[in-house]
Inverse folding.
């Protein structure tokens, strides 16, 4: 479900009383404060995963950089770096705040191919690989994806309202859509 | 052998001297192309947490034009030349011999002009370093991208974070006297690049 919506700046106006918490590259944020808006800016091949439980108003976001760490240890600084371990870390964090796995739903965005091929071979299609790895991780965990905006060739910024589960995506082309 | 990006003082000096040689040569190449004197305004070598890397080019959402290339050979890494769009358009006017203000968008011809700029700057930079150390460093064809700074930085950072939580970067800001052609020139070496150049320079022991 993609619908064009008002510019995000007007949605985030001071009268909206929303506090924005930025989720940087490889980070995971979980909150049970329904007034919090989690946001991630300027994503290229990275993918943002938003998971929430609307009954308890517990929500969280992870900013995935790579599909899988393989045998590499997960960095405590960047627990969201890999799609597989980052998604699991987010879910554990949500459960720790009182969310129920059975009520969790997810929205994802990102995974663009910003360059036209100037990349080390190991990173070709890393955006689409990130998307596939996030989808696989969520499927393994039994969490349905209810909306997504992935792929393409342009960067994105993403805002996630924990209270309602609303996600707004603004692209580098200044197109704003609601998931 | 240390696998991390931390550099000791001697190693920093070696890298600093090399970076300066590369940048001098790259800016000489740029000056020839735009037929104007180029001044280096600042040069810094920094180790920054990966999540802060987009701040090097104005913040993750800032719309910029990036000329991006990778290099391979005895070592690997990323080179990124970043301009505000209106500055990039002014540079394109200089390169194509247009009247100032002619370029207003990034079409195929404009992209080619900036790609050529990337070729010259990238090759000049890498040649200076490779010649100093007797190494082989080959640039890729450049990609010219108009996008959010964070999305462009992702391309380089994604590779580095496979090995390190920090990004080591050489950052140069430069400009012509009239400030029409200014920009930021970033060189983001892979972990292996740092290891190899320090081994070649004899500062770090080869294993």
């Amino acid at each position: 479900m993609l619908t064009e919506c008002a510019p995000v700046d007007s949605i985030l106006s001071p009268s909206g009383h929303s506090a924005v918490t930025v989720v940087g590259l490889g980070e995971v944020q979980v909150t049970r404060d329904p007034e919090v808006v989690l946001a991630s800016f300027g994503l290229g091949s990275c993918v943002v995963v938003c998971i929430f439980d609307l009954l308890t108003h517990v929500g969280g976001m992870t900013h995935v950089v790579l599909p899988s760490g393989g045998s590499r240890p997960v960095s405590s600084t960047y627990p969201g770096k890999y799609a597989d371990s980052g998604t699991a870390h987010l879910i554990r964090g949500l459960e720790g705040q009182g969310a129920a796995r059975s009520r969790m739903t997810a929205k994802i965005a990102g995974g663009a191919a910003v360059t036209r091929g100037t990349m080390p071979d190991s990173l070709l299609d890393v955006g689409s690989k990130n998307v596939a790895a996030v989808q696989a991780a969520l499927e393994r965990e039994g969490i349905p994806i209810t909306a997504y905006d992935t792929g393409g060739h342009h960067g994105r910024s993403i805002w996630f309202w924990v209270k309602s589960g609303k996600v707004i995506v603004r692209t580098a082309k200044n197109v704003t859509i609601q998931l | 052998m240390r696998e991390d990006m931390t550099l000791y003082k001697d190693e920093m000096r070696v890298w600093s001297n090399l970076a300066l040689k590369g940048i001098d040569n790259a800016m000489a190449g740029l000056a020839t192309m735009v037929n104007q004197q180029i001044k280096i305004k600042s040069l810094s070598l920094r180790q920054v947490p990966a999540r802060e890397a987009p701040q090097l080019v104005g913040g993750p959402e800032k719309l910029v034009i990036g000329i991006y290339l990778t290099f391979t050979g005895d070592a690997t890494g990323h080179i990124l030349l970043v301009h505000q769009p209106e500055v990039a358009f002014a540079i394109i006017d200089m390169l194509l011999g247009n009247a100032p203000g002619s370029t207003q968008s990034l079409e195929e011809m404009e992209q080619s002009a900036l790609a050529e700029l990337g070729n010259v700057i990238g090759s000049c930079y890498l040649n200076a370093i490779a010649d100093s150390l007797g190494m082989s460093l080959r640039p890729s064809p450049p990609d010219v991208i108009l996008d959010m700074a964070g999305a462009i930085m992702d391309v380089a950072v994604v590779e580095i974070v496979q090995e390190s939580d920090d990004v080591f970067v050489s950052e140069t800001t430069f400009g012509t006297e009239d400030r029409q052609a200014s920009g930021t020139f970033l060189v983001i070496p892979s972990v292996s690049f740092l290891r190899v150049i320090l081994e070649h320079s004899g500062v770090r022991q080869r294993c």
About this structure: Chain B is about 40% helix and 30% strand.
